Amino acid sequence: MILVFDINETLLDTAALAPFFDEVFGDPAVRTEWFLTLEETWMTATLTGRYLPFGHLAKSALRQTGWRHGVEINEARQHRLIELLMTLPAHPDVAPALAALRAKGYRLTALTNGTLKAVQHQLSQEGLEAAFDVILSVDSVACYKPGQPAYQHAADHWHVSPRELVMIAAHGWDLIGAASAGCKTAFIARPGKVIDPQLFQPDWQADSLTALSQQLMAEVSP
């Protein structure tokens, strides 16, 4: 089985954006509202076939959040958000868990809704780029996750069926999309992330990548 990892929130910690939202909105919790708006924006883009790069949508979500709160979102603030997204820190459990999986012979794939250039920079500045056998972006298929073409893109790279992939993410919508495409799924319950078992049950789940990787190493062959 080939392991496929989501990036933002799953491996990289968007809580690092809290000071920016505190400065702009006077409330760090607005970060969550912005991210939900961003998710809504790319879901709409996926459903309507109106693909735009991730950075464009991130800025749009910030502008929309600003309008709701009566806060001016100028070009400088939009640019600053993108700069911060490019330098998100990894969750502490990421590097050791990826190293353990590589040592056991698993093939590791990064699959992001961001652009390829952006995710390469994000992973490189955290020293994680070399942990992956390949880094893929939905830019190549102009379809965001949870659209099925995004997961098929990863399968096509490896010349396998989606059934040979395990999608690992901190987002229920990502895993539901992956399962619909035929993948196995593994959920990381990062802070604030939940999944409703009456709606969807992933194949594996844990509250850290350390625990999740141990489950996978015990049950999934490389």
Helix content: 40-55%
The name of the CATH topology of the largest domain is: Rossmann fold
Shape: globular
Radius of gyration: 17 Å
Individual helix count = 9
What's the rounded overall pLDDT mean?
Answer: 97
Number of strands: 6
Q: Domains counted in the coordinates: how many? A: 2
Query: In the CATH hierarchy, what is the architecture of the largest domain at level 2?
Result: 3-Layer(aba) Sandwich
The neighbouring-strand order within the major sheet is 3-2-1-4-5-6
Find the structural class using helix and strand composition. alpha/beta
User: Strand portion, in percent?
Assistant: 5-15%
Task: Characterize the biggest β-sheet.
Answer: 6 strands, parallel
Give the end-to-end Cα distance, rounded to a whole number of Å.
5 Å
State the main characteristics:
single chain, 2-HAD, Rossmann fold, 6 strands, alpha/beta, globular, (S)-2-haloacid dehalogenase, about 220 residues, S-2-haloacid_dehalogenase, 6-stranded parallel beta sheet, DNA polymerase, domain 1
SSE topology sketch:
Layout: E1 2-5, H1 18-25, H2 30-48, H3 54-69, H4 75-85, H5 94-103, E2 107-112, H6 116-125, E3 134-137, H7 148-158, E4 165-169, H8 172-181, E5 184-188, E6 204-206, H9 209-219
Parallel strand pairs: 1-2, 1-4, 2-3, 4-5, 5-6
How would you sum up this structure, described in words?
This protein has 222 residues and is of the alpha/beta class. It has helices at residues 18-25, 30-48, 54-69, 75-85, 94-103, 116-125, 148-158, 172-181, 209-219, and strands spanning 2-5, 107-112, 134-137, 165-169, 184-188, 204-206. It has a six-stranded parallel β-sheet, sandwiched between helices. It is an enzyme of class 3 (hydrolase). Keywords: Hydrolase.
